[in-house]
Structures are given as C-alpha cells and as structure tokens.
Write the structure tokens for this entry.
Amino acid sequence: DTAVSQTPKYLVTQMGNDKSIKCEQNLGHDTMYWYKQDSKKFLKIMFSYNNKELIINETVPNRFSPKSPDKAHLNLHINSLELGDSAVYFCASSQDGPLSYNEQFFGPGTRLTVL
Amino acid sequence: KQEVTQIPAALSVPEGENLVLNCSFTDSAIYNLQWFRQDPGKGLTSLLLIQSSQREQTSGRLNASLDKSSGRSTLYIAASQPGDSATYLCAVRLWGSQGNLIFGKGTKLSVKP
C-alpha cells in the first residue's frame, strides 16, 4: 500500500522519559511534516522537512527534535516528556514545487499519553 | 496572521439531505485550500484540494468551492449518507509558507439513518 505510516499507534509513558515516533512515506514525496492535535482537536504544524533540511519550525520547545535519516523518513524525538505533551501527533508528506499539486497526505496518528 | 474558521462546529442531518459546510480565512493570499475528513481515532483523509487559481473541485458527491476575494470556501455534500459522519477539516496553505497548513477547528457532521 502506498501511504504514510507511523509507529507506534499508541504510546504511554512517564513524565521525564525520552521517546521517539517514527514516520515513513512511500509516496516518493520530498517534503514531510509533523503536526500536533491537542485535546480540543486543534491541529497545528510543528515541523516540516524538505530534502533533509528543516524549513519551518513553529514555536515548539527544543525538547522536540525531528530527525530525517533519508527522504522517506521523518522521526520525531521528544526529550524530558511533560504532561502537556499528551496529544495525537500526525506525520504528513507532500510533493512540493511549482509543477506539483502540493497535496498533503497524513498518517494515522500516534496518540501519546504522558502520565 | 492567518486564521481559519469553520461554521458550524457541529451539524446533524437526516440521511439523504444535501448540506454545506463553511470555511472562512482572514488572509486571501492563499496558495491552496484542502478539505479533509477525520474519523474518530483515525488520521486525516484528503478529500479535495483547490489551487488558488481554481474556483471549484468535484469528487463524487463532494463539491468544494473557493472564493479568495471573500475569504471563503464551502464543501457541498450531496445526498448525505450515515457513512459521511465524521469531522470535516478545512486547511489553507499560504504563499511562501513552505507547506505549512493552517487548520480550522472542524465541523463534526452526524448523518442520521
């Protein structure tokens, strides 16, 4: 199946721990994103990567760091987890550029619960 | 600063009705606008994307329109079915935003059999 996939689907952890969420896309896209959906279901951009280069970074704590080993992967590392980090995190990808449609495709989400 | 508003926040209709979901945005300098569907506990499914130069897009029973000058988009769903029940999200991408989608808070649609 061509898609954006994320692992794990659910992540429950204690405050202060460090965790990672993995994302992979097999659509051949050149840009990948991480979004956060809070308890009120509001979606906000966190990061995007284009050709292994970070190109936007909204007001996200530096405890969050995206890492892209290659064009098809964008993993999210979170250090020193806090209660307020509990949310659903979505990975997305798109093919950008003036000749591209620029439609974003989303993964199934990872529900992070910090206890 | 771009803000995206969706009205109503929730909508309940009987099966078979035609319905319209509304999306408004404050900055008309958009690159494109995308409508998504989100089912409970699931990811986002892209429904329609309208480029800034387009006025509407259609896919099956769905029709999305875009009026940049008034900062509005509508999603029209014809002959609604219980399977259409979901939250519908509107998102805009600005020129030069490098892919950053700005989302509305969504309209939760319930179609009763």
Notes: Chain A touches chain B through 27 residues (CB under 8 Å).
